[in-house]
Amino acid sequence: MAKLPKFTLAHNEQKKKWELKSDGTGDVVKRFANKADATKGGVLEKAVGKMGSVKIKKRNGKIQEERTYPRSVDPRSSKG
Asked: What pTM was estimated for this model as a whole?
């Protein structure tokens, strides 16, 4: 299977918006007024396209969670 495109959702302090950026190019894919708008019902899935992995960061920059779209391509969990 090909590598999944990777994205990061993080807060931009200068623009006061949440930005979804492509990790490969650094381009902003989409901006959101708040984090709730970005993470609700399928919004991120539509923004990344058919496949992708999204790291969702807290406002302080630490990773909160990671989501994979579609869920069926999520890597299997491993022990340890």
From this structure: 0.84
N residues, the chain: 80
Per residue in 65-74, pLDDT (tens digit) is 998 887 766 6
56 CB-near residues (< 8 Å, 6+ apart): 9, 35, 39, 63, 64, 65, 66, 67
pLDDT at 6: 93
- Do 52 and 59 contact (CB within 8 A), yes or no? no
DSSP 76: P
Neighbours of 23 (CB within 10 A): 13
Q: Coil, strand, or helix at residue 46?
A: helix
